Amino acid sequence: MAAEDPTRAFMRDVKRVVIKVGTAVVTRADGRLALGRLGSLCEQIYELMSEGYEVILVTSGAVGIGRQRLRHELIHNSSQDLQKLQVELDGKACAALGQNGLMALYDNLFSKLDVRCAQLLVTDNDFRDPAFRRQLNVTVNSLLSPKVVPIFNENDAVSTRSAPYEDSSGIFWDNDSLAALLALDLNADLLVLLSDVEGLYSGPPTHPHSELIYTYCKEMHESLVTFGEKSRVGRGGMTAKVKSAIYAADAGIPVVITSGFAADNILEVLKGKRIGTLFHRDANQWVLSGEVGAREMAKAARESSRLLQALSSKERSEILLDVANALEAHEKLILEENEADVIDAKQAGYEKSLVSRLALKPGKISSLANAVRLLANMEEPVGQVLKRTEISESFILDKASSPLGVILIIFESRPDALVQIASLAIRSGNGLLLKGGKEARRSNAILHKVITSAIPDNIGKGLIGLVTSREEIPELLKLDDVINLVIPRGSNKLVSQIKSSTKIPVLGHSDGICHVYVDKSANRDMAKQIVIDSKIDYPAACNAMETLLVHEDLVQDGTVNELVLELQSKGVKLFGGPRASSLLSLPMAPSLHHEYSSLACTVEIVRDVEAAIDHIHDHGSSHTDCIVAEDQEVAEAFLQKVDSAAVFHNASTRFSDGYRFGLGAEVGISTSRIHARGPVGVEGLLTTRWLGRGNGHVVNGDKNIVYTHKDLTWQLLQQESK
């Protein structure tokens, strides 16, 4: 049984319905009338009328019925006159022959249900007359009032239009477009187009990888959908239905394309069930708010990413420059929405560290725009030949950089992350799905809207999807056939949950427990500057210092006390490890593996650099660690032995950042060992593929081929340097 669809709640307000039934539903495969389906249609219309609905029927099938009658005659009479008559009757005359039988059948079926029906035959020329359209409204309302079913059909017998039926001057060109026109003119609340398939599919319905689209969104599906063959009968098939549905939906009439073969589909549609394909002018908003299915959003991102990859480097750069300009042009609106999020977060009692990450500080939009421009002007990352090998004479194999495909980013609090991630995805040719924290709902929505406004229509806004419903995450994590990488940015709990819930590769770090070790050889003033900057420049950042390690000799000469006082003077609350809490009278730290993400940190005293390294390995998170030392041998030992994604000598941990590394931006900082480590920029969103160029080469058991395996990479580098 189909589930109820929250986006179809409007169905409860529907009163007037236009139902269009096509020739493929009216007739069987052998051309005869499908009496069972027609009977079911009439019964459903009867039930709808019993429930107070007003029903207008648009029917096809007259031409098919007329042709079938003629064939029946020809089987029993093979005279030359009748064979000549077949040619003359094909098309328009068949319509005249079949219309009378079609209406007789409807009248008979409806009469058994004590329902009356009336026939209205129209042509496109009729609708050119405003007086006709006004009178048509009067007539239809007069029929609906006593519960008579108006049955429309194009009067093909006298229509002056000929194949292919559609032209620039035509008001409608088949019964699908007639139904859409009538829905508008007669003020219908819903249009139902009955088909011989369940609805609109992403490809030909018989294709094994085609999937039913439940809600059509132009930005998401226009480039995704490919049509198969048209209907076995009738004029337009699914292409005509979609065109008519888009026309009506854009004008404000919701449309559902569904199967006319199922017994109760029309009734189920009116109950708001997830049946068939819905066309609605608000569908794009539902997509942006995550109300459209996870798989559809992911597939749209994949299709758009493939279109993006086909662009030239210059064209992708221009998109990024447009994004940067759009950010600055909408700065006021972005900051207003962000301020609303910050106010709500404070009122909700969120921690100060979260509120700090949430707020877009003065100058942040300009900084983000400049970072996007830096990405736009960087060297083209996609399609770079990393290695070239001659496999055999005239057979060359290239190893080239390539986008990963579709990336799902789940992040908390920081709306600026959305800008960085989106710009990196565009630069690297990847599709993107974003799930931000609910505390940044307004900020994320406006940033997403601004960024996607800069994406050209030939790529599609579906390139970057914004998921706002938490319930969508489990569904997204199941899509290992569409999504290629998940990058969670948030708490240890979030990352752990993601890793345990998906087969998709996960890239990220769970904690940002960064250390600064001050060696006995350190320059005291430099040590103070680095320690203070590492902690207070941005306490909520994952690259902020959480533990200060100090050589034990510095306790005796007072350096430790100076560092402690300097931190406390800046408002930093200090906790001690076992030695520091005793020697410096500090409260015990909750754990030596603790991320404060605020103006607080742990202090511990260590014997020497080896003890500092052991402490980092035992209690750190392999994120970023720093040594302050003048002894080069000690510093080098620290750099070589500390097993973290980023290790610094005489530099603040805050430098562990994609922008500061010159990457333009980052999607996160990875402590993983596979694929990417440290700040992840464009290169971390790329993989490789092999491009071979041969000249009729075949294996044939390796009998007639001579493998040279000659490295030609150096020749490639020489060519590029010229």
Report a brief summary of the structure:
The chain is an alpha/beta fold and 722 residues long. Helix content is 41%, strand content 18%.
Describe the fold and architecture.
This protein is of the alpha/beta class and 722 residues long. The protein is 41% helix and 18% strand. The strands form five sheets. Strands 3-4-2-1-5-7-8-6 form an eight-stranded mixed sheet, with helices on both faces. The chain has a six-stranded parallel sheet with strand order 17-18-16-15-19-20, sandwiched between helices. β19 (624-628), α26 and β20 (646-649) form a beta-alpha-beta unit. α14 (331-347) runs antiparallel to α18 and α16 runs parallel beside α17. The protein starts with 15 loop residues before the first strand and ends with a helix.
Low-confidence runs: 164-169, 230-236
Write down how many β-strands occur, each being a DSSP E stretch of 2 or more residues: 24
User: What share of residues are in beta strands?
Assistant: 15-25%
Q: Determine the number of helices (DSSP H or I, runs of at least 4 residues).
A: 27
Largest sheet: 8 strands, mixed
Structure class:
alpha/beta
Quaternary status: single chain
| Spatial strand arrangement across the major sheet | 3-4-2-1-5-7-8-6
Which geometry do the CA atoms define?
elongated
Radius of gyration over C-alpha positions, nearest whole angstrom: 34 Å
Report the helical percentage: 40-55%
User: What's the N-to-C terminus distance?
Assistant: 67 Å
